Every structure is written in structure tokens, then in C-alpha cells.
Amino acid sequence: MLKRRDVLQLAGSAATFAATSGISEALADEPASKAATPFSNSNVVDAARALAAKPFVAPRTELPGGLVHISSDAYEAIHIKPEALIWAKDPAGFVIEPLHRGFVYKTRVEMNLVEDGKARRLNYNASDFVFGGLNLNAPPKNLDFSGFRVLRRTDGGEPQEMAIFQGASFFRAVAPGQDPGVKARGLSIRVGDSRGEEIPFFRAFWIEKPTTAENALTIHALLDSPSVAGAYRFTLHPGGATIIDTECSLFPRVDIDNFGLAAMSATCLFNPVDRRGADDIREAVAELTGVQMLTGADEWVWRPVANRGALQISDFIDENPKGFGFMQRNRRYDDFYDDLHHWERRPSLWIEPIGDWGAGSVELLEIPSHEESAQNIIAFWRSKAPLAKGQQANFAYRQFWCWSPPSSPAFAMTRDSRGGRGHGAGVERFLVEFYGEPLAEKDRLSDIKVELTPSPGKIRYSRLFFSPEGKNCRLLFDLDPRGHGACELRLILKLDGAPITETWLYRWTP
């Protein structure tokens, strides 16, 4: 590893960063030093600040041709040898699996291991990897890595995936027993903006060796893009849910008026609320059911998502939100009938801001897609206040990668949302089912009032049905869009003037 006085230096025709910024870009034929250097979180903050003070330099992506023009299957066949896993026998139970570069993962990422307050760069060694039959003319040298996987070993069993950091600033995690699904991003910039999206990426990671007493893994990361540099600290906590505490300090090179915090993306090809163009034996293909929100005013909101015919962007205006996230509420096999992909096992991702985030909105993008591998639903918090050039901005939040979020409304919650053709030309029919304790008082069910508002459009018919077993009801209604290209629907059930259900929102589009 290059010593700290030498860091961020490129040789030859490569661009040169400031030596004070704390990250090296070694030449392809230059081995990293084995020397360890003092490390603390402030080093990464200082590196981000220094990086932002210099012009942006694009990351290095050069690779041997045999690693670029390969299929996803060929890339997946590349894996590290068991004996090269990091901390595989450590009693703390966290195992790090460095990931090879190749296929679409071309950007080189520097990895550093931190122990006893000192950081040592992890050297790439081709002999640590199995290449799955790839015909490489010569062993690649000094490639660094594309990212890494965090494995968790419990009760002496085989390590299981807990999280993965790979590609731009993407990362994901799972709770025990789950399959990977929703992805998070360190930062989003101009998503859905006509000016074009800018995609930040992580240049380097510093992973602290955990201890059995901590039962947590701390990861530091240096983010960069043409508009901003940033220092991140992720603290991973295992358990029934995987919790990731995220702290970031951002240093804008320019004013940024469209950025997203706690950004996430997931797949929705079709579901019962909109089966647009679906000729499929399955009931649904979706990593999420909808977006759940707890506003700064303590209103619980549920918004089903759909695969749209055209891009839809929705803004849910709020101030100091208390939580939001992608929820997979469908947890039965019968909700999907998919033995190959088991969408019911995908994680929910719930965000709880730490501190006041001020005014802004939860922004939701529903992007048309014909591929179930495409994560076409995106959401994030968009602050009303821009990031100002030269001014440090700090944010913190907690992520729960879970089966169900740690907080849920005391109201009845949405169990199902279904849509289809209604009676009459252009009329759309919906069925919304609520479930919860507030619906258990059978002697008061007749007093429940329905507040259903379309904007624009008109409700032609509605009827409330109660289940004999109690605790749930279904509202059936017909919407006449009256020729409009979109209609916003708002539904809530009340008793004695007070809500007994979460607020159900939906945007109908043709």
C-alpha cells in the first residue's frame, strides 16, 4: 500500500489527486506496500474534503479483455478460494469475501483492512481466485477489486451472505433466511431528471476487524462523482433483522439541487393491482408490495407500486420524516407461485432518519420494464434544501433489512390491493383489503365511514364488505377517470371521526 504521504497519486499519464486526500490509485504493475498506517474515521472525512477540492478524475476501468467480454454466468463462476477468505476462522463470526473485477464490474475499488487502529491495503493476488475455466493469457496483476461480500458465520455453520457492496455506490443486505432483493445506494443524484442522472461510486473501503464483544462490523467508504465527494461509515448489526447504521459527510464540488438520501431500488414486473401485459402463470413478480411511510406528522401512509406504461414520478411532501421504505408484505408462496425465485423471501427495507432532515419529499419513480431482472422501482428522500458548493453536509439514518419493519401502525393495515376493468366504458375497478385489531369490534362495524377521494375523476360505485372471521374488511369501488391520463386516489376508514386504517394512496394510469 502506498504510504499516506503518497496516497492519491497516479503515475505516468494518469491524473494526480491531492496527496492529502487519503486514497491511492496504484498503477497496474505497481504492487501495494505492506506497511500499515494509522487510521480513524476522520481520515476518510479529510480524504473526502480534499478530494472535493480537486477536479473530478474518472475511476480506472481498464481490464484484460478476457475479463470484460464475458457473460454473467462466466463472471459468476469467478470466486475466491476458501483459504483466501478474510477472517474466516475469527471468533467474531464476520467473514469478508473480496469480489473480482470483470463483466459490468469494471471500476477498480481499493480495499483496506483495519486492525488495532492501523490500516493495511489488501493486495490483489490472482492465485487467490478460481476463474471457472476462463481462458486468460496471463494471470492478471494488481487489479484491486470490484467490491466485497460480508458473510456471517453462526453456531459453527457455513458462512451465509449478510451484505454485499459492489457496483457504483450500490449495496444490499438480507435478514437470516432471506434471498437478496432490494438494493440501496450511498447517494443518488438527478434520478429521473431531464438533465440526466449522475451515478456516484465508492473509490475505496476500510473494513475494521470486528470483535466478539462488539457483535458489529464497521465499514468506511470514500464516495466520489463529478459533483460531490463523501465519507461514509456503515455499522452492520446482525440479528433477526440486519441493521445498518449509515452516517455520511458530503462535500459538494457544485450546487446540487436534486439528490436522494437513503435511495433504494427493487423489481416490480406485475402484481394484482396492475397486471399490465402479464401473460404469466404466476400471481405476481415483485420484490416489494409498496412503499410505507410514517410522516413527520405521524400519519401512516401505504402506497402500492406498479409497473407503469410510462414513467411516473410521485412526490410525497413531508418535513422531518420518521420513516419510509420498500415493504414486501406478501410473505406466502401462494402470493407468487414461483418455485424458482421465491419473491416472498425478499427483504423489506425500512429507513429511520436520525436527526431532523427538514423539508422535502419521499420521491417514488415507477419505470416501465419488461424484464424481471430490472429494478424499476426507485425511492429516496429528496431534500428541499440543495447541497451548497464547498459546504459540508452531514446525514445519518438507520436501515432495517427485515421481514417486517420494527414499527407498524396501530391502525388496520393494507393486506391487498387489486385493480382491473370495471363496469362501463373506461371504468376501473379496485379492491382494497384492510386487516387489523380496529376491525375486530363487530358491533361497531356499521359505524365505519369511508373517505375515498379521486383527483381528478369520479367514484361511480363503492361498497364495504366485512369478513365473518373479523379483523378485516374489503372496499370495492369503481373509478371513472373521465378521460384524464392519471387519477390520484386517497382512501381511509374512520370511526368516530378518527382513522382506524393507514392512509391508502394510489395513482391510476391507463
Major beta-sheet overview? 16 strands, mixed
Structural class: mainly beta
Instruction: Fill in the CATH topology of the largest domain.
Output: Beta-galactosidase, Chain A, domain 5
Number of helices: 3
CATH architecture of the largest domain: Distorted Sandwich
**Distance, first to last CA:** 57 Å
Average pLDDT number: 92
As residue ranges, the low-confidence spans are 1-22, 25-30
SSE diagram, text form:
Layout: E1 37-38, H1 41-52, H2 65-68, H3 72-76, E2 79-80, E3 94-99, E4 110-115, E5 118-121, E6 129-130, E7 147-152, E8 160-166, E9 170-173, E10 183-185, E11 188-189, E12 201-208, E13 217-224, E14 228-237, E15 242-252, E16 259-266, E17 268-270, E18 285-286, E19 290-294, E20 300-304, E21 312-319, E22 323-327, E23 348-354, E24 359-366, E25 377-383, E26 393-402, E27 413-421, E28 428-435, E29 449-455, E30 458-466, E31 472-480, E32 487-495, E33 498-499, E34 503-508
Parallel strand pairs: 4-12, 20-34
Antiparallel strand pairs: 1-5, 2-6, 3-7, 4-5, 7-8, 8-9, 9-10, 10-16, 11-16, 12-13, 13-14, 14-15, 15-26, 16-25, 17-18, 19-20, 19-22, 21-24, 22-23, 23-26, 24-25, 27-28, 28-31, 29-32, 30-31, 32-33, 32-34
Short description:
This protein has about 500 residues and is mainly beta. It has three helices and 34 strands.
